[in-house]
Amino acid sequence: MSAAPTLPDRPRRRRPLGWIIAAIVVVIAIIVAIVVAATRGGDDTASSGSSSAAPRTVTIGVADKSLPYWATYTKLAKSRLDVTVKLVNFSDYSLPNPALKQGQVDLNQFQHIQYLANYDVTAHDTLQPIGATAVYPLPLYSTTVSKPSGFRDGAKIAIPNDAINEARALLVLQSAHLLELRDGGSAFSTTADITSHKVDVTTVDASQTANALQNGSVDGAVVNNNYATAAGLSKHDAIYQDDPSSTSAAPYVNVFAARKADVHDATYLALAKLFHDSAVQKVFLKDYPDAVVRSTSAAELQHELRSVEQDAKAAQG
Question: Taking the model in full, what pTM does it have?
């Protein structure tokens, strides 16, 4: 009987070469995807960082663009903050706030809290202070007498005609014993509140008070500091002024103002803070030696603004 045939050994199954190659390709693709994602994440971070530090141009509305401290300020803004500051000069106090509201400027720096509060209330606006600068004395000047008591009866005194500076000027004249105001006067007094007077008060645009004095049309004038400086009036020419260091001067702290939506803008806050740099202050105090510099926080300024706005609304009845 012949032997049964022997079957050949079953061959081992081999994994297809194509499958192995495909698996390798998938693994490589995953690795590449991870690397690319990480690289892109790094690029996004760098881009974000460079974006936050990207150069900016900020326009600031002012009333005294030619003063030397602004040159120092703008140079420091560029070198330290990489911000190009463009100053827009306004010769009329009624213009910078509407310009800020309408976006023609990014910030302004020309007014004190009292003025800003009155503007917000009357214009139904919400501009906000984001940094303090200083309180300036409000001086009374004369080319004919050396002290207030030297004015003859009926002498003409020019004062600013805008609501807030008019009230403050009247308080200066009352303190100098040149007139009396109803109920002692307030931050919202007008010439209608004069109950007795030695001098005759005439109201003119704030920018024209110095000119009225110098052309001889009045015997004295209450002149805001920036206009006095522009007119070449020295602090030694002042025959009287109020006290900028008194607690009652808080509403007269001058400020950087911004739109309400921008009160937390880091660049704007840095620009407000830059005013207090020692290099800026050195030049600023040379221009305004009688100014009392204030470093009041933005939160405190905004609190003061709300308080003064309440007074302004009450004054409107």
Answer: 0.72
